[in-house]
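[SOLVED] Need 3D model of a two-part complex

Original post:
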Amino acid sequence: MSFIEIEAVDLIYGEERTGTLAVSEASLSIRHGEFVALVGPSGCGKSTLLKLVAGLVRPSAGRIRVEGAEVTQPLKTVGMAFQNPTLLPWRTIRDNVLLPLEVVEPYRRRLRQDRAANRARADALLEAVGLSGFGDRMPWQLSGGMQQRAQLCRALVHQPSILLLDEPFAALDSFTKEELWHVLQDLWSRQSCTIILVTHELREAVFLAETVYVMSARPGRLVKRTDVRVARPRTLETTFEPSFVGIVQDLRHAIGAARCA
Amino acid sequence: MRMRSMLLARAAPWISAALLVLVWWLGVAAFDVKSYIMPTPGETLASLVRHWRPLAANGAITLATTLVGFSATLVFGTLIGMLVGMSRLAHQAIYPLLVAFNSVPKAALVPIFVVWFGLGAVPAVITAFLLSFFPVVANVALAFSSIEPELVDLIRSLGGSRRDLMVKIGIPRALPYLFASLKVAITLAFVGSIIAEVIGGNGGIGNVMLVASSNFDMPLVFAALSVVGVLGTGMYALFELLDRHWASRSARPSGLQGIENAS
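Solution:
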């Protein structure tokens, strides 16, 4: 039984007839705890597909189900992270991480009682991403990569069953990026959540995901599915192995074809 | 070296003010300007001391009308700003009207208010409000309309309501915008109430200036002007202080300060 089921979904932005078709006949199913990556040329509707899964946008046609129930409003059990860190500049790093707990039930009701526990949870997460001791800093005191780590903590603090990542490493330099791949891999193996990662970096997709889907240029269609059978934990060494490089090459060809199609 | 440059920075505004007074004094002395055209700083000071009682009493009136008008700005400016910033429909419906109202010279409206409300404090309060509220509306509206779409998605994806978005993000994010606009607004409110007092008032520092200039008592006009200057600067400084205290915790130190500290 699949956890997330996307069936023949179309999405049209704007008016029914005149609007632009952003996603066309997307169908895929995702297992519980699966790590999926969506790759494709820019503007192909990858991010839109994320919003569809989160219930932030309703599909124009087709259906999306999570745990068997059709998604008709924003899901409350997702964590999201974006390309920009989007930390709130007036809050300390710890309070930024704790933001979801102030909004999501059932944490919200128990904020008072659980203050100490929540604080400990935020600090544990910060430690897991290598930010221990930074909880009391303000966002501007952290580098871009560190802010992005903090954003990952914010996305995970309420223990979401689905984590939606919209090019979270796209704005980082390649060293920081590769470091954060490891951080994310560790987090995923520790918290058993289902992850959908949108990216345009193929090595990133293959390094992190179990299943990679390629989307075509607009209107976005899923044109290829690749299972990445590379042992974990994956390291930087892995990325130089022929099998890894082979998968990346295949994907690159598929995207080249998808862009021309 | 560090110590001396800091002292210099502290003293700089006083030194430049003293230079300005000196130039004024020398100018009046050099061209032998009559006191009923332009008094010397000394004559102004003497008039200030001699008439301190009416100046203080009327200064208090001006301060009171300014603060009442400014309070209205604080309340309605913030509310209308929120409305315009959050709702596209409200923006379409109200904002062009606000811009149109704002471009009407307020001085021209004072006689109308005098006809409607009579001489006294009411026209001054209204003028202070009208002159000062637009910057607050514009700034607060900008704060709310420029919330990052990612943050809206984030709150919605957590099952948060519109109210959560306001409380957790919209309002704290708007505070620096609000405080910045209040600094401008308080000065404009001052200008507004004084304009009204000059045109159609029976009290306040503006009225003192009107009466004094019709008596050719220029030293008193200048004494009143200096009272206005002190009050306006004081109010601005107060809001500058509040701004720093409440809203700027999140701001990184500005680049210029960094350069000065480094050198």
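Edit: The two ends of chain B are 10 Å apart (CA to CA).
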